[in-house]
Amino acid sequence: MGISLWDSYPPKVSDDQLQYLAQTVKDWTIFNGLTVRPNPSIVSEESNPNHVLATNAPVTLYPSPFPKQCFEQAEDLQKVYNELYAAIATDEEWLGEVMKELVEVDDFLANLWKIHLQVKEEGYVQDLSLGMFRSDYMLHVPDDSSSPSLKQVEFNTISSSFGGLAVRVADLHRELATYPDPTHSISYPPHPLFNTATSASITSGGYPPTNEAVDTLASALITAHQSYRDSRTSPPLPQCILFLVQDNERNLFDQMALSQHIRTTNREIPTFRIPTSKILSQTSIPASSENPSRPLIYTHPANPNARYEVTVVYFRALYAPTEYDTPAAWTARHHLERSAAIKCPSILLHLSGSKKVQQVLTSTDPSHLERFLPKTSKETLDSLRASFAPQYSMSEGPDSEGVRIALDPDLAQKHVLKPQREGGGNNIYRSNIPTFLKGISEKEYKQYILMELIQPPSKARNVALRSDGQIVSGDVISELGIFGTCLWRSKVGSQEKNILQNRMGGYLLRTKARDSDEGGVAAGFSSLDSLILY
Ligand code: ADP
Ligand code: MG
Ligand code: MG
């Protein structure tokens, strides 16, 4: 896109027009469920004692321009990435090697690995695994003259969220771009990027491409449910899918988009939401003398006679150490892992998404990609490798490249230090890195990996409507996520796997103020966005 287009996007509007547009978006979001429960720091308990309120999710008022070629590259890579992470989760020995040094210093990972070993000892009773993934990228433009390339920020293997709301943002922006309004009092004002809006085919620009995230994610749950082998409970029970959610989840409407899609496309599959604190009281596993196949039985809280055999547990919780604040939470994770329900994800798949694994994958000596993707063409592997940003181990001693860069205030300036955590707000940036490292022992360095900062385009601008109604405009950075799913059969201890379904579909764009290092919508940094391909 030429410089002039960046300079003129989003189109200039008067204050009155902006207020009108914001009000239109506020109303649209509530009407269409592009919503979140309010943050208690914004809406106090006293003013919302019955917890009835919802507000708009943070959204941009305009879609962000995104290079079509980079978008398509991300789409093309998704199924390869799906297979890569399925292969890693299947290779317990390799993953165990990577985990070995981490479990010495990271209690959270150590506890997860311990549960895996306990269940392995007892014997896993489910050989299907489901991955619902999101691969996240930023555009990398090291200097103004270079054309943007696509660099992966991270790959998520647990609780990959916002597919449900992202679909609605694309719908919102498409409606605003194409509203039949010659005076542009409600549709966007004219801009060259919107010119093709009425005539364009969906992929050729003008307005956000169709977003298939909900269908992709819901279909994965349906396929897993249908692939589940009945464990012959006696008497036979109806089957259900469980959405495992956090106790005070504010992003429930995103999750409900998936359960509602399952209900409307497959009326015979019940789905239930269960908060983590209720796992041990609302689910049970029969004694092995009664049924050695360890079915997970869900008893509905409103009706003790309503019992179901759980086919799939979809984790939208239990990815952060803070969620394991009681021993019961660890017992609950172990309970689910040893059950016959298909886990999305299993502990091995959860751990495969560690930042450490992503760092190890970037190494070329040895290259692990050929091992995990033996049938993939060299050209595709090269394209995969081209999406990696440089990353360094922090476990190879004071003379290693990673530690040297991290401790040097100048070199650290272009890097981010990442612990093995999810959900945003955990990283250490730039000049804070050396200071931070000086405050911990050298032994603890290996909890982290070091990654070069991706350098996004400098001219992008947008306007966001935050959940508290504030309108903020300015320079922005966008992060693209592509959704993908994979269902496969494998046995722990054998590296063989049989992929039943591998699918790509749907995207998420999150846009944040340029001066914020962190991203994350739930963590309060970003707004949901969609894109116009150019
Ligand atoms: P999490 O699993 O907590 O989401 P991420 O690796 O996605 O961890 O990091 C959180 C945020 O930090 C990202 O959304 C992005 O805004 C920023 N970030 C992470 N890695 C990089 C990088 N290499 N370059 C620039 N920004 C990054
Ligand atoms: Mg993550
Ligand atoms: Mg992230």
TrEMBL record:
Binding residues annotated for substrate, in chain numbering: 134, 158-161, 249-251, 255, 316-319, 510, 521-522
Cofactor (UniProt): Mg(2+)
Domain of life from the UniProt record: Eukaryota
Cofactor note: Binds 1 Mg(2+) ion per subunit.
UniProt KW keywords: ATP-binding, Glutathione biosynthesis, Ligase, Magnesium, Metal-binding, Nucleotide-binding
Any single Pfam family the record assigns to this protein: GSH_synthase
EC number(s) reported in the record: 6.3.2.3
Major enzyme class: ligase
GO MF annotation list: ATP binding; glutathione binding; glutathione synthase activity; magnesium ion binding
Catalytic activity: gamma-L-glutamyl-L-cysteine + glycine + ATP = glutathione + ADP + phosphate + H(+)
Family, per entry: Belongs to the eukaryotic GSH synthase family.
NCBIfam families in the record: glut_syn_euk
Protein name: Glutathione synthetase
Native organism taxonomy: Eukaryota, Fungi, Dikarya, Ascomycota, Pezizomycotina
Gene behind this protein: GSH2
